[in-house]
Amino acid sequence: MNPRQLLQAEALAILHRRRLENARLSTTGAVIWRDPKVKPAKWQLELGEVCDSLVSSLQLRTGARLLLSAPPRHGKTEYVGRGMPIYAMLSSKQPVN
């Protein structure tokens, strides 16, 4: 590798680590980690906070539930079906075997 390619690879590695750290902090961070082009709308940021609290309550085993209704193609599956499980796994205090 030439020096320029090495710098680009290092920059990409740093960017990936930052995105992964954001994925550990919130569901919205996990969604952006999966697809960096995502620009969440205000309601999606609020949905991310609801998903975060749902993960916290599930980790505490309090039995919370979520009913979500939104028009098609508004990011429901991306947040609840993809982002929330990633956040739950990364934020878990238990080691993953």
Keyphrases for this structure?
97 residues, mainly alpha, flat
What does the model show?
The protein has 97 residues and is mainly alpha-helical. The chain has helices at residues 3-25, 27-34, 42-59, 76-91. The longest helix is centred in the N-terminal third of the chain and has 23 residues, at 3-25. It is flat and about 55 Å long.
Concise structural overview:
By secondary structure, the chain is mostly helical.
Number of helices: 4
Cα radius of gyration in angstroms: 16 Å
Number of strands: 0
Taken as a percent bin, the fraction of beta residues is: under 5%
Head-to-tail CA distance between termini:
35 Å
Shape verdict = flat
Give the topology string: H per helix, E per strand. HHHH
Proportion in helices: 55-70%
| Low confidence ranges | none
| Structural class category | mainly alpha
- The overall pLDDT, averaged over residues, is 87
Largest sheet: none
List the helices and strands and how they pair.
Elements: H1 3-25, H2 27-34, H3 42-59, H4 76-91
Helix pairs in contact: 1-2, 2-4, 3-4
